[in-house]
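Box 3.1. Reading complex inputs
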Amino acid sequence: GAVVSQHPSRVICKSGTSVKIECRSLDFQATTMFWYRQFPKQSLMLMATSNEGSKATYEQGVEKDKFLINHASLTLSTLTVTSAHPEDSSFYICSARDPLGASEKLFFGSGTQLSVL
Amino acid sequence: DQQVKQNSPSLSVQEGRISILNCDYTNSMFDYFLWYKKYPAEGPTFLISISSIKDKNEDGRFTVFLNKSAKHLSLHIVPSQPGDSAVYFCAASDYGGSQGNLIFGKGTKLSVKP
């Protein structure tokens, strides 16, 4: 089946620094990728939709200048958390849908646990 | 306001018995529903789905039932196995609208005891 790779799996950083998370589709081309955030005991919340070759679409309440998304190729989307603060500590996860697939099912990366000190 | 609700945060079942995980939704525009399974430190993986034109979909030990009038769906696992222990997320989509924006529930942690 389709595979989505996400890196790094865990990152600890100091407050004020920036962190980049990569999401790659390994065996299919994804024109669209999705970035989610999950706080403990909460549901996965969509942050933004990453579109190859164009600007990302952000969900209401998500700061586009803080969460920079770049989808420069059909197999790679990156999320950069700029000037991270402790409240940004969360589990970030990306997903993509195989455009040749017949259903809505998404393929997820393994997630990135971000801890901001 | 949560559009997809999984009211049971956890469920414990004996091996070999049936596991029933429930999910309720509020948006009548949802027309496609999915269940994802998540192990610790891994991303969710697709398990089974159902379109709103059906009321049942079966795949091996997994069956999803959809009751549109009640805006309720359930996942049945029978017989349950210890390897089924994971967090199960219910998700819904209004496919006709937003190209696959899924709304997730908070998940139910299933523990299958040997």
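In summary: The interface with chain A takes residues 2, 4, 9, 32, 34, 36, 41-46, 49, 89, 93, 95, 99-107 of chain B (CB under 8 Å).
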